[in-house]
Queue: 4 jobs
Job 1
Amino acid sequence: MDVDYLAHYPAALHGGPTPTGEWWRWGPHDLRLHRLPAPEAPVVAVVLHGAGGHGAMLLPYGRLAEGRAEVIAPDLPGYGDTRVGGPVTWSDWIACVADLVRAQDRPVVLLGASLGGMLAYEVAATVGASGDHRVRHVVATCLADPSDRRVRRAAARWPLLGEHGPALLGATRVADPLRVPVRWLTRMTAMSADPALTDLVCRDPRGGGGRVSLRFLRTWMTSRPTVAPEDFTVCPVTLTHPAADTWTPPALSIRFLERIAAPTELVMLENAGHLPVEQPGLDQLRAALHRGWDGLS
C-alpha cells in the first residue's frame, strides 16, 4: 500500500493484519489481488474500486471488517499493477469479478466504491443468474446506472460528454484503442473533500492519474443493467452514500435503490465526501458493513 494514501486516511483505516498480494490469471490478464487474510472468518469481502482507484488504494477500508471477513481488493484490468493482455470492456470487469467470486469457498459480500458500486450490483446479478447463491450482500457507496443520462452527466467532466457520449463514441469505434487520461473524462477533482488527498489520487498513475481506453468508456456508457432492479432478488443491497458527495448526487443512487426488488437499506454517511474518510460517516460505514455479513456462514 502506498504510504502516501495512509498518511491521508484516518486511524480507523490503519493497523490490522499485514496485507499480502498475489497474482490471479483471468483470460489474457494477470490481476493483482490485495488481501487482508482472515482464514478463520466465515465471509470473504471483495472490495471493488471505480474509475479513479485501485485495489491497494481501497484495501485499508477492509480494516473496517475487524477480522470478521477476509478481504480481497483486486486491481481491475487497466488499473493498479494488473498486467493487461488485451482490450478491456465494462463487461470484462463484470465477468472477471464474477469469476473471482465463484473462486471463493465462503459466502461473499461485495463492497463497491464509486463506479465499483454498480459493478458490485452487476456481479451479484451475474453470479445469481446461474443459481449460485454465493453473494449474500451488496454494499455500495454509489449506484450509478449509466443508462440514466443524469448519471452520465454527473459522472463526466463535461455534462455534454455524459449527454452525448454514447452516440459520439458509438459512431467513432475506430478510436476504441485510444487511451486518454482519466481526469480528462471524469470530475476527478471531486474525489475527496480533502484537497491533498484529491491531488494524490489525480497524480497516481495506477488510478486517477492513469489512462483509460475509449473502448472501456463506450461500453460503460452504452450498457444497461444485466438484471433490471425490479427483477433483482439475489441478495440484500445497502446503499452507503456519502452525504457530502459533490461528484455523484445521492438522489440518483437512491432512485435506483428504490427500484430494487430485494431488501434494501439506505445509510447516509454524514459529513463524508465521495471517498469517505470523515467521521461520523466512517463509523456509519463500518456499522453497515458489519450488518452486511454478521450471521453469514
Job 2
Amino acid sequence: MANTVLHKAHTRGHANHGWLDAHHTFSFASYFDPNRIQFGVLRVLNDDIIAPGMGFGTHPHDNMEIITIPLEGDLAHKDSMGNTETIKHGDVQVMSAGTGILHSEFNPNQDKRTNLLQIWLFPNQRNVSPRYDQITLNVSERHNRLQQILSPDSKDEGTWIHQDAWFHMGNLDAGFSTPYQFKKEGNGLYVFVIKGDVKIDDHELNMRDGLGIWNTNQVSITASSDAEVLLMEIPMN
C-alpha cells in the first residue's frame, strides 16, 4: 500500500515582500512547519513571483542541487563562476552549489512579472566542484506526454544533477491518462500541479497542490481538466 502526503495549495507558507510574492511548499525563510521540512531529498519547492525590474541580490549557496524552472517571464542570472545568462519559459537551469557559489537573479523586464519554481535537492555527494547548466526544451513535446527535463545522467534527456532524481513535465488535455513508472526502487514521487486539476491514483489535486507518494513503483495520472504538471522522482533518504 503506497504512502502519501497531500499539501493543498492554501496550506503553503506565504510571504509577500512587495517585490517578491513567494509561496513555500516546505519550510523556508520565515515560514517554519516541523511537519513540512522536506520530502525525501526534496528540501525546497518555492513558487515565486518577482515584480518587474526586481530580484535577489548576490547571495551564497553550498552543497545543494538547485533547479530553476521559469513558468512566466524571464530571469537574469549572474554567478561567481562567470555565468551571465537569461532563462525563459521552456528553459531549465541547474546549479550544483558544491563547495560554494555566489549568484544573483532578477527580473530583467520593466513591464511584466516573472513566475518561477525554484527547487532544492540535497546532493548525493558533498563538496563537488560548482557547476552551472542551462537547457532549452521544446515545450510542444510535453503535450499529452511526460517530457523528461532532468536525470542523474548527462547523456540522458534533459539536464542532470548529483542525485538519483528524474523530473518530468507534462501539458495534459482533460481526460488524458498515463502511467508513471518509477525509475529507481525505493524512490518517492512528488507531483506538483502547475495548472488545472489532476487525479493521481485516487487523489484529486488542484492548481498548485502537491502530493508526495512512496512505497510504490507506479502511479496513474489522469487530467481532470486541461493541466500542467511537474513530477519529481527523488530518493527518500
Job 3
Amino acid sequence: MRIVLGVGGGIAAYKSASLLRLFTEAGHNVSVIPTEASTRFVGVATWEALSGNPVSSSVFDEVEKVNHVRLGHEADLIVVAPATADLLARAAAGQANDLLTNTLLMARGPVFFAPAMHTEMWNHAATRANVETLRSRGAIVMEPAVGRLTGTDSGAGRLPEPEAIFAAAMAAAQDTGAAGSAAARPAGAGSLLGKTVTVTAGGTREPLDPVRFLGNRSSGKQGAALARAALDAGAHVRFIAAHMDIPAPDGVELTRVETALELRDAVHRAAPGSDVLIMAAAVADFRPDTNSDTKIKKRDDGTDPVITLVRNPDILAEAVQRRTEAAAGGGAARPVLIVGFAAETGDGSADVLDYGRQKLVRKGCDLLVLNRVGTSLVFGQDTTEVTLLSPQDSESVPAPTYAGTKMEIAHRIVARVAQELDAAVVPVR
C-alpha cells in the first residue's frame, strides 16, 4: 500500500518516526511530507533514512514530477501525525500553501488525522469546528490521548501512541478497501458524528476474600475494538472497563470498575446521556453472598468452606427497562439504541442461535451480538465470528453472520448501529 505520512510542526513529531517504522515494517511504501516547521523537531535526513524515499515540504522540489498532484493521487492512505491545531485549520479551510496541504486537497483515498496540541487548543471552539468540518467531509480525526503534555501540564491533547495510530489507520484503510479488503464499511467516517456511545468491556471480578475472586476469560479486546470503531466514526465514547488484558483505547472517557455492581452503577450514570449503549462486558451472573475481610484458609479438620452464590442484577435488562419507564413518563427514550452481547455454547436442549434469539426477547434490547464460545474460541483471541440478531429478523431477512478480526467485526457492528440510528428503526418497549 502507498502511504503518505504528513508530519505537523509539534514536539510530538518524534513519535512519528516510530509510526513510520511500523508502516514500513508492515511492507508499505511510505512517502513522508513534513511541514517546514516540523523539520525543526525532526530533520529531513531522518525521514529519508527511515522511509527510503526522498523527502520535501516544498511544491517547488522535483517540479517535473508534479509532486503536489501526484502524491495525493497515488496515495492509498494519507496519515497526518501529529496534526497540530494550525494544520487542522489549514486543512479544513482548504489551503494549499505547502506540499502537505496540496496533497490533502488531491487525496483520492482515506485521510486520517492524529491530533496533538495543548488541551486549551484542542477544546477551543475554532479547533472543534475544524474537526467537525473535516469529519463531515469524510476524513477520520482520531481523538487525542489524555496525559502528560509539554511542560508540567496534563490533559487531552497528547498524541496517541504510534501503535494505536497504526492500528486505527490500518483499520480505516481496510474498511475503505485501500488495503485490499473485500468489504467496504457500510457507514463511513463521521457516521456517528455528534453522538455519544457508551461501551462496556472486559470481565467483572467478584471478590471472595482479599486475594481471591470469581472471574471469567474475557480479555476486553472486542470492547476495546468497538470503542475504537466508534471513535473512528466520530462519536464521543464513554468506556466502562472491567478487568482487561489490554490497555483502554486512547481518546475515550474512561471509567474503571471491578464488580458487576460497580459496572451497574457506572452504566446507570452514563446511559441516560448516551445515544448508544453497547454492553460488550462479560458480567458475572453470580457473586459470593459474603466477602471475607481476611484470606480464607484451609481448615485443620479437613472440611471445605461452603461458598453461597447470589444472583447479580441483569444490567442489560435494567437499562432497557429504565429507557421504557423514561419514555412512559414523557421523557426522552435514552439511550436511543441498546446493543447486548451473548456468549453461548449450546447444549442438548438448544443450539447457540436458539439461545441467542431467546436472550434477545428476554432482554428486550435492539440488537444482540451472538458469539459461540468455548476453549480457544472468542475469549482472548484476535478473531471472532458473530451473528447480529434483531427483532426484525425473519426467514426472508435472516440475521447476518460475520467473521474476521475483532477490529473488522467492531466496524461491522458500529456500521449497523449508525444505520439503525439513521433509520430510526428503534422500538421502545
Job 4
Amino acid sequence: MYIIYNPTAGRRNIKKLTAVLDALTQFGISPQVLRTEYAGHATELARSVARLGGITIVAAGGDGTIAEVVSGIIGTNARLGLIPLGTANVMAREFGLPRKPAAIAKVLASSGGRLLWPGCLQYPSGTKQIFVQMASVGFDASVVHHVHPGFKKRVGRYAYVIQTIRDLFYYRFLPVQIEVDGKIRSVAGAIVSKGCFYGGHYLLTRHANPSERGFTIILFEQGGVFSVLNVGWALLRNRISDLPGVQIIKADQIKILTPEGIPLQADGDASGSTPVEISDAEAPILVAAP
C-alpha cells in the first residue's frame, strides 16, 4: 500500500493521517508515504507505483488530490483508497466513507469496494484533465478561480463564502453556450456532476451514480445577483431541484462552447477556461469503500 499525501494540509490533518497510519499497523499494514511537492506530482507518483500492479494507492488530501491520483492509476488494476483531508471532501461523502481514523483504516485494509467512472475535460490544445466529482462553468467557477490558496488554508470552506460575496459585485453573468448530447442551450451556468453532492454535504440530486457512465447536469438558466442568492439559499436547504429556471438532466457528451475564456473549475480547483469538451474517462477504477 502506498499513501500519496498532500502536505499543504493543516496540522489537524497531519494528526489524522498519523492516526490512520497507526491504525493500519493493527492490520499488519505499514504503507509507504509519498509526499507531493508541486501541482501534478500526485499523478506522477501514482503512475510510477501503479506499475507494480495489484496494489492500493491511497490519496490523502482533498478532491483535487484524489483527481490527480486517479489520473495516474486509470487503466491499471490499482485500487484507490481515500483519507479525506480536504476542505469539502465531496467524494468521501459520495462513497459513504467514515470519518474516524480507525474506521478509515479498516476500509483501507479490506478488499473490494465500489467502481468510480471519472469524467474527463478535453481542451482545444489536446490537454486532458480527469475529474472525479464535478466540473462547472459560471459564477461558482469564477469564485474558485479567485480564492487565494493561502486564505483557503487559513479559513477553510469559509474562504469560498467570503469570495462569493466579493464576486457578486463584479461578475458579468455572460450567457454561456453549451451543447448537451448535440443540443445547443444558452445558460448562465452549469454543473456537470458524477455524483449527488456539492461542496461537501449539499445535495444537488438524488439520482446520480458515480459508478456509471454519463453525467447529471444542473443547468442554471437565470443569471444575476438575486439568482445566485436564490441558488445559494436553495443549496443550503438541499432544494436546488425545486428552483424555477433550474433544469437537471442526464447526458453523455457535453461541450461548453462560447464565450471563450470563461473560467472552469473541477473538483474545487481552477481548471482553465472555455471552450472544453466533457466525456467519460477511458475506464473506471475500484475505490475502497464500505
